[in-house]
Design a protein that fits this description.
The chain is mainly alpha-helical. About 75% of the residues lie in helices and about 5% in strands. The strands form 2 sheets. It has a 3-stranded mixed sheet with strand order 4-3-5. It has a two-stranded antiparallel ribbon with strand order 1-2.
């Protein structure tokens, strides 16, 4: 990668080896505070999402389409946070805060890929709830294991395609104003601000892709939950309504957090220019939401809480059996 510079009216090329992530600067006390906040949040994110993956995998009672999608959501959240946060934590105490050009491109690609995948996956989960609640007799046939696998594969394909487009367009730009990124990771808005070429096409593609994906996904979610709401209002059983509201309420909370955050930074004109707003929203997007999703689905979901209890009891029995065998008491 080269960095064009002007000298005596002519354009020369200088090698650009990497970028400097300057967002986590400041005094040593400020950096220590940031590290003390970010590290526990990341640890909770890893623990929560790994727990969801393990519980859903091991508990036969959770082997259904809904929890298959939830397990994939936890996997995507875990990867999304891990692509950004460990490097950010390392940079807090780094003197150079440099990320290589290749590392920056890889981070941007993976972030775009995983964030887009999650956006589409949330829409697929809404469609799954629509089929389960509004067409329960056809649910097992419509949402077969093969169909569920294809839907998840489709979400990853959409994410991959969007990541290829966004990353290739962004890194074709000449970066000549500076190599200092006003962010804690390589994201599209701060990178575009470093370009010395016309970025209109890039901004149009970013907004166009984001708004198209968000619009399609939100349309699926709104239609699905519109039918779900009508079905709930027709239910005679109060306990049935409560169970449906509990499941759907968790999903709608996750949807609101994710899409609200994404729209603020990527889906509105001017969102790409507000770096302070973008940095705050990016922290929520890459750390807070992946941490909260497992809590949202576990604390408000009786099936998950029961599965966690069964897993804990099974672990206690295994541990007790091993102790008895060791002591030759059983």
């Amino acid at each position: 990668m080269t960095k064009p510079v002007h000298r005596n009216g002519s354009l020369l090329a200088v090698s650009l080896q990497g970028f400097v992530l300057v967002r986590f600067g400041g005094s040593a006390e400020t950096q220590a505070l940031l590290f003390a906040v970010f590290l526990p949040l990341y640890m909770l994110t890893v623990l929560g999402n790994l727990t969801m993956i393990v519980v859903i995998t091991l508990d036969a009672g959770l082997h259904s389409p809904m929890y298959f999608f939830l397990k994939n959501l936890s996997f995507v959240d875990l990867c999304l946070s891990s692509v950004i946060v460990p490097n950010a934590l390392a940079n807090i105490f780094s003197s150079s805060k440099v990320i290589s050009f290749e590392g920056c491109a890889t981070q941007l690609f993976l972030f775009s890929f995983l964030a887009t995948t999650e956006a589409v996956l949330l829409a697929v989960m809404a469609y799954d709830r629509f089929m389960a609640i509004c067409s329960p007799l056809r649910y097992s046939v419509t949402m077969s294991p093969r169909t569920c696998a294809r839907l998840v594969l489709g979400t990853f394909c959409v994410g991959l395609l969007n990541a290829i487009v966004q990353t290739s367009l962004t890194f074709q730009l000449p970066f000549c104003s500076s190599n200092h990124i006003n962010s804690f990771f390589c994201d599209i808005p701060p990178l575009i601000k470093l370009a010395c070429a016309d970025t209109t096409l890039n901004e149009l593609v970013i907004l166009g892709n984001s708004e198209f994906i968000i619009l399609c996904a939100v349309l699926v979610i709104v239609i699905s939950y519109g039918y779900i709401t009508v079905t709930i209002l027709r239910m005679q059983s109060g306990s049935g309504r409560h169970k449906v509201f509990s499941t759907c309420g968790s999903h709608m909370t996750a949807v609101s957090l994710f899409y609200g955050t994404g729209f603020v930074i990527y889906g509105q004109p001017g969102g790409l220019q507000s770096m302070e707003q973008g940095n705050l929203v990016s922290i929520i997007y890459t750390l807070v939401i992946p941490m909260f999703n497992p809590l949202i689905y576990s604390l408000r979901n009786k099936d998950v809480k029961d599965a966690l209890r069964r897993l804990g009891q099974r672990h206690s029995l295994v541990k007790k059996s091993g102790w008895c065998h060791h002591q030759r008491l059983c």
